[in-house]
């Protein structure tokens, strides 16, 4: 597979590529996926999946529309385990997407940078959240999540980086990751998998 051949040029990274091969999928209903990202913030993967499933179950055929989310009472969302702060962010996403006519088609036409710039205008949506959306919902191959704790921990170990000076640490990470382009998302996926296994 092309991405592995390219990433293997980095001998340190090549050592952890092993047999795993990752593929990326383009999902549907991206605004709802963004709400899912908000729900999962600061939660374990398992808990996040349970709450997101409850969220989807509130809607017919588990297919929420932006308007239906906006029409869902706060108490209903609170009852399935979503905090008040996150409920406000979910409403903020819904309002923004309606106002700016955000559709899957519209997002697919934009570059990664344009999507980050657009969606981080929403209260509660930071760069990391949009990067996860780019990777896991929009299937973008060249995203590097420099602020992700898992990626930071994996690269600290693998590349013997010093995280003490935050600014320099991130510059070092970005410099290493530059060589992985245009397949930086796959590198992140392998780094996460390796870190979890270790």
Account of the 3D structure:
This protein has 198 residues and is mostly helical. 64% of the residues lie in helices and 0% in strands. It has helices at 2-7, 11-17, 30-40, 45-57, 66-71, 74-79, 84-99, 104-108, 112-119, 127-136, 149-159, 166-178, 184-197. Helix 3 (30-40) runs antiparallel to helix 7 and helix 3 (30-40) crosses helix 10.
What topology does this entry show?
Layout: H1 2-7, H2 11-17, H3 30-40, H4 45-57, H5 66-71, H6 74-79, H7 84-99, H8 104-108, H9 112-119, H10 127-136, H11 149-159, H12 166-178, H13 184-197
What CATH architecture of the largest domain would you give? Orthogonal Bundle
The end-to-end span amounts to 25 Å
Global outline: elongated
Bin the helical content: 55-70%
* Main structural class: mainly alpha
Sheet having the most strands: none
Number of structurally distinct domains: 2
Average of the residue pLDDT scores:
95
Count, helices? 13
Rg is 18 Å
Fraction of residues in β-strands: under 5%
CATH homolog superfamily of the largest domain: Hypothetical protein, domain 2
How many extended strands?
0
- Compressed to H and E, one letter per element, the order equals HHHHHHHHHHHHH
Characterize the quaternary organization of these chains: single chain
Identify the CATH class of the largest domain: Mainly Alpha
What's the CATH topology label of the largest domain?
Endonuclease III, domain 1
Low-confidence stretches: none
């Amino acid at each position: 597979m092309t991405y592995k051949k390219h990433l293997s040029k980095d001998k340190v990274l090549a050592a952890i590529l092993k047999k795993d091969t990752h593929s990326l999928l383009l999902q549907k209903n991206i605004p709802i996926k963004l709400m899912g990202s908000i729900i999962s913030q600061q939660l374990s993967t398992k808990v996040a999946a349970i709450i997101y499933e409850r969220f989807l179950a509130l809607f017919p055929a588990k297919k929420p529309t932006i308007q239906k989310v906006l029409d869902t009472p706060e108490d209903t969302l609170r009852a399935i385990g979503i905090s008040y702060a996150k409920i406000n962010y979910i409403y903020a996403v819904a309002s923004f997407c309606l106002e700016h006519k955000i559709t899957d088609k519209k997002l697919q036409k934009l570059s990664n940078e344009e999507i980050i710039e657009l969606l981080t205008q929403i209260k509660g949506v930071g760069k990391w959240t949009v990067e996860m959306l780019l990777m896991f919902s929009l299937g973008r191959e060249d995203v590097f999540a420099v602020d992700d704790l898992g990626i930071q921990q994996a690269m600290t170990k693998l590349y013997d980086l010093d995280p003490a000076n935050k600014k320099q640490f991130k510059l070092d990470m970005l410099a290493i990751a530059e060589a992985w382009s245009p397949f930086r998302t796959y590198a992140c996926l392998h780094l996460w998998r390796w870190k979890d296994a270790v």
